[in-house]
Amino acid sequence: MEKKKVAVSKVCHGHSRPVVDLFYSPVTPDGYFLISASKDSNPMLRNGDTGDWIGTFEGHKGAVWSSCLDTNALRAASGSADFSAKIWDALTGNELHSFEHKHIVRACAFSEDTHMLLTGGVEKILRIYDMNRPDAAPRELDKTPGSVRTVAWLHSDQSILSSCSDMGGVRLWDVRSGKIVQTLETKAPVTSAEVSQDGRFITTADGSSVKFWDANHFGLVKSYDMSCTVESASLEPKSGSKFITGGEDMWVHVYDFFTGEEIACNKGHHGPVHCVRFAPVGESYASGSEDGTIRIWPLNPANTEDPEAPNANGKPKAAAVANEVARKIEGFHITKEGQTEA
């Protein structure tokens, strides 16, 4: 009997609470990096290829809902339930600045040119901070119709996308005027909105639906209904021929972009999957779950064995992989002051 190919993930431990957001940096001269946001209040930085832990940013006093890296992966940003968004030095772990808000910050994003930080949250206000003048008051756009869930830049920082936690639709803002110029209609609130690496598509997840929009003309290109509630979706960045989803069924699904046919179903998480993202090179993707772990999956698995099958020691292979990765990432710890600890 021919054995079905099963993806074996690299399991990244470290968070003590659910992982709610993942962000990959672009490819830099030093490789690419993955930052994670968790309800444990400590964003973590990892090698994007191996998943090896690099450091933890300490300083927030509440759940961290969003985290991101700038284009060069030199600075990190995080938005938290402690009513703040923080900027970090991604090389030392130092906190560079803290932007105080009046309510929970749910989303943050660096502009492509790295000069601006966009934040949004329960206040229903989008703010743009000037990274060259961090002490200056931020620019505030018109109030959003609801509590902000996601934010993203597009069109070379000329436009902004935002979605709300309590109503459907993705709103397109003109940065120059600060006004909403268009709304992409969805029935359910959009929990994930991603601009493709080539700037052609906007991928959204709302309810049990995954939609792909033309990022320049804003027409609906594809819409697929899934079998369960989907919390996050991501489009493969190189060929754009596949997409992934994660949601309440605890599995990470891979689909054909053109037909919607399921290609793979990866099992391993022990709680709902809150976030999925493709690596910038497109050869792997990451998922973050309620179970507190991050898993990095190969897009084209080479193995043909069930990861739950026992190895020579009688232990499931998946558990052996998890233990090996956990052992490898026992490295250094970045404190708030930026010192490293063995």
TrEMBL record:
GO biological process: spliceosomal snRNP assembly
Record-level GO cellular component terms: SMN complex
GO MF annotations in UniProt: RNA binding
Family: Belongs to the WD repeat STRAP family.
Annotated WD repeat ranges: 57-98, 98-139, 266-307
Name of the protein in its database record: Serine-threonine kinase receptor-associated protein
UniProt entry keywords in alphabetical sequence: mRNA processing, mRNA splicing, Repeat, WD repeat
CDD domains: WD40
Repeat in keyword set: yes
UniProt xrefs under InterPro entries: WD40/YVTN_repeat-like_dom_sf, WD40_repeat_dom_sf, WD40_rpt
